[in-house]
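TICKET #2291
ISSUE: user wants both folds in one file
ATTACHMENT 1:
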Amino acid sequence: MSPVRVTGEAAIRHVVLDHPERRNQLDHATMQALADALEAADADPAVRCVVVAGHATVFAAGADLHEMAALDGPALAVHPRTRAWQRIFAIGVPLVAAVEGPALGGGCELVQACDVVIAGAGATFGQPEIGVGWLPGAGGTQRLPRSVGKATAMQLVLTGQPMTAERALAAGLVSEVVPAGEALARATAVAERIATLAPGAVRRAKAAVLAAFETPLAQGLEVERGHFQAQASSAERAEGIAAFLERRRARFDR
């Protein structure tokens, strides 16, 4: 049985971590299955948004330490799990995370790979790697400070202690906090909203926002300008403006 379950039809795809008995550990097999599922959704022109979810009691723990203990630095540099993380962060379709319970280590870094994060009230987020003599290695020292700021990121990374959903919301890691048990429903509703919008514009907007975290301001503005001008020549923009002026709903079909 695959550790990742894929469901959904047409515009919304659900990619669910599905081995809660192991706290949805991001072992080698899970990383490969997760990257495969997200790339398949990204390549499907019918898919306009993906919901990434875990179990009702746990989103995802970190890596399987039994597996990781066998990998030293050179082995990790060429291991498929390292490439799997790169594949996940390269996904162009919007990703909406539905988080219930702990999102720790790689689980927290998977949250950082998503574009919108809906957390149940009991969710927790943390980078506990320091407790086993290690440090985050899939963006936790780079993407996390860009989301929550240096002070909060340093506290999470250097103490290994998690933060609550409410604190994650205040810090900027989480988009919304909903009552426990309602994260998946709310994440699906957000995905459904995104799926009604112009898919080309949505992908360009995601890419432009991500550039803000990866480039200096002047270069980021050039990236934005390029997407803005390219979209100006699109059928989507023509349809969107026409629909607005004609007071009707836009039809954004591929």
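ATTACHMENT 2:
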Amino acid sequence: MYRSLKIGTALSLLLLLVGCGASGAKTTQSHSSSRTSQATKTSHSQRTHSSSSVSSSSQSSQAKTATFANSQFTINHVTYELTGTDVTASATANRNLFVIYYTVTNRQSKAIVPSDLWESSVSAKQDGKKLSTGNLAFTTSQTKDNDLLNNTVMPVKPGKTTKGLAMFEPKNTDPVSVTFSDTHGQVVHTSQYNLN
């Protein structure tokens, strides 16, 4: 009996120790998984904070690379001095063109094509819809405008000036809004033109 009591006590102690060991393992595992979870949350929080600060810095405005003052739009060391506007016949039947005349001066150290820079930074809308450039009608009265249009696709050497024009094809006689943007797409100036 003494022997079975001894074996019973030993088994009870063994079960108690096994139970404590399992509980300790669970506690250790719980602490370990808690630390892992906390580290993951901290890491995620840091990533979220870091990506939001990158996002907010990319959304904040960059230094503008263009200016507009006194009817002069300057971008990339090229100045377009706006000299007038007109409404003239379009090559599209029953449509007109809104024409902006300008004198362009190249202050870069390399040749530029005026229409390339203009089209990448100037756009027009009417009634909230973007306007296309359109085409001049082939009439003798528009020979001068055709010559100016040809100037805009010819390279302008450094330090040189030429006259040109830009066209937009409005859908009706409502006002046209022309937006001038810098190389980052930031709006520098918007002008409103009445077509009447």
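RESOLUTION: both attachments delivered.
EXTRA DETAIL ON ATTACHMENT 2: DSSP finds three helices and nine strands in the chain.
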